[in-house]
Design a protein that fits this description.
Elements: H1 2-11, H2 14-21, H3 24-36, H4 42-64, H5 70-94, H6 102-120, H7 127-151, H8 157-162, H9 165-179, H10 185-209
Helix pairs in contact: 1-5, 2-5, 2-9, 3-5, 4-10, 6-7
């Protein structure tokens, strides 16, 4: 996940990466159904259809404009990796294997650094760049990944992944305000369908659990 995310944002826009990553909850729901027998609720099935429609709208327009899909495919690997991670973690806890996966975050970061090291050569980062990279590694990657592992101990796999929707909203907003990366109309429409479907799915699930 570390590696795919960092490579993806160098190949396409932040909005494209984050909207594609938002598919993780849906992929997680499907994986949990196939591998650990979690039932997919009707509302989740509808959310999957709406989200797929949003993705089709977004990338259909981009395909017509001749946009390179390499970054999008790499970003899709983030969603697939996340779905696999949440499902495996949930399965382990269901089997009574309460394994502390916090060290796995560190191992993942080290492996990601080694894999992407050739892409960073020759080193040309200034002190300012190093400060930004430190903040990225700590605030954007290390802390959220550790919290996600902790949450996976008590929440169902799809619910953990749905928390990642906040990254889509704030990530696109910050890239817009801080870096001037204005998302296209196709991204706003398609991304709105994806995020809206997932948010509605979670809201309906919350109401059902508290009814």
């Amino acid at each position: 996940m570390f590696t795919f995310f960092m490579v993806a944002i160098t190949l396409t826009t932040v909005a494209n990466v984050l909207v594609t990553m938002a598919l993780a909850p849906l992929l997680t729901a499907v994986a949990a159904r196939v591998f650990i027998g979690h039932r997919i609720a009707r509302r989740t099935g509808v959310a999957i259809l709406v989200a797929v429609s949003g993705i089709a709208w977004m990338y259909g327009h981009q395909l017509a404009e001749g946009i390179n899909f390499t970054g999008t495919l790499v970003a899709l690997c983030v969603a697939i990796s996340g779905a696999a991670n949440w499902t495996v973690t949930q399965h382990a806890h269901a089997k009574g294997h309460d394994v502390d996966l916090i060290p796995a975050v560190l191992i993942g970061a080290v492996l990601s650094s080694l894999i992407t090291l050739p892409l960073a050569l020759p080193f040309q980062a200034s002190a300012h760049d190093l400060g930004l990279l430190f903040g990225l590694g700590l605030i954007q990657l290390a802390i959220p990944s550790s919290l996600a592992v902790v949450c996976a101990r008590s929440l169902k796999a799809p619910e953990v992944a749905l928390l990642g929707l906040l990254e889509v909203i704030f990530g696109i907003l910050l890239a817009w305000v801080g870096a001037g990366e204005v998302p296209g109309r196709d991204v706003l429409v398609g991304g709105g369908l994806v995020v809206g479907a997932l948010a509605a799915n979670e809201l309906l699930g919350w109401r059902q659990r508290n009814a």
